[in-house]
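Input structure tokens:
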């Protein structure tokens, strides 16, 4: 990591402010070349950003974060300019002319990880926070970024090491009259550790659901009300609803949010025996999505006595790992 990297750090498009970030040993020289001065540590200064011929590109703020007290652990420089893509490209080109290279995707966070500023869980939380689709997901990612999840992992690791030391001491000194391994304290500590690991695993699973969302497949026989349910959940007419069986042939997908949890809701073709080639393909796709889903909403028309009586048989045809909830609309 002896080279200096640079990139536009704000989202593509036009905005009031855009940022060009630089990290590496040439930050001071680049600040001098582009802004004519090296600002004080963590002090925003208004400067003209100049091209190689001394012509002003833009006027904005320049900030300098000396390492190791920076995000990456290296010297970090930021040019905060007006957020037009042409302006930012011109500033970035000037920075690259001054001795930096274009950063790879995620390289600033990678350097923070390699320099010990972030552990792996925190590094992954950066992208989770950026890509969070709900308020709950953003809060969960921020907690991981602050080190809450890592602290729990490190605490468990220390407790496991302490228990291992206890066990190894009992093995290494068998001549002692006290059987350390037979004491209730050891069993209690193992049980406590087991519970903590279960809690940690469940916390990680919940975090994954908040980040990626839950896949919810609406399944059932034709004309059971599946597409109507999708429309109610989506809040608009996402699917065509008719009295004709087999209207839905392909998988329809909608993304909604319930209590901060993103849900990927899939409406599928009605499950039945068919000789129609297109409908058979739709049923095959429905079964494939059921196998992949986190939860299946199996819709049964309560007014259809034949369908209600065949629920148990219909369930036997579903994948064995499908988690189902029966709905009677």
């Amino acid at each position: 990591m002896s080279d200096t990297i640079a990139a536009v750090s704000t989202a593509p498009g036009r905005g009031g402010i855009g940022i060009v970030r630089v990290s590496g040993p040439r930050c001071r020289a680049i600040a001098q070349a582009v802004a004519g001065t090296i600002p004080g540590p963590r002090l925003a200064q208004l400067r003209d950003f100049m091209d190689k011929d001394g012509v002003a590109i833009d006027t904005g703020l320049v900030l300098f974060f000396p390492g190791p007290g920076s995000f990456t652990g290296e010297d970090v420089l930021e040019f905060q300019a007006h957020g037009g893509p042409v302006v930012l490209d011109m500033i970035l080109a000037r920075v690259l002319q001054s001795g930096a290279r274009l950063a790879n995707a995620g390289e600033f966070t990678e350097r923070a990880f390699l320099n010990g500023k972030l552990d792996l869980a925190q590094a992954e939380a950066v992208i989770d926070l950026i890509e969070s689709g709900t308020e709950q997901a953003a809060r969960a990612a921020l907690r991981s970024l602050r080190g809450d999840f890592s602290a729990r992992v490190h605490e468990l690791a220390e407790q496991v090491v302490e228990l291992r030391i206890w066990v190894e001491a009992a093995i290494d000194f068998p001549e002692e009259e006290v059987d350390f391994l037979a004491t209730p304290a050891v069993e209690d500590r193992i049980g406590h550790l087991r519970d903590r690991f279960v809690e940690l695993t469940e916390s990680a699973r919940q975090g994954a659901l908040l980040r990626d969302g839950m896949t919810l497949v609406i399944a059932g026989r034709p004309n059971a009300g599946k597409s109507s349910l999708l429309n109610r959940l989506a809040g608009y007419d996402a699917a065509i609803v008719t009295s004709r069986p087999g209207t839905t042939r392909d998988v329809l997908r909608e993304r909604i949010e319930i209590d901060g949890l993103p849900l990927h809701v899939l409406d599928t073709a009605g499950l039945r025996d068919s000789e129609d080639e297109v409908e058979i393909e739709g049923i095959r796709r429905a079964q494939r999505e059921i196998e992949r889903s986190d939860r299946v909403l199996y819709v049964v028309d309560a007014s259809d006595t034949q369908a209600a009586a065949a629920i148990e048989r219909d369930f036997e045809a579903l994948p064995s790992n499908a988690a189902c909830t029966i709905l009677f609309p």
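The CA atoms of residues 291 and 319 lie 6 Å apart. The longest strand covers residues 56-65.
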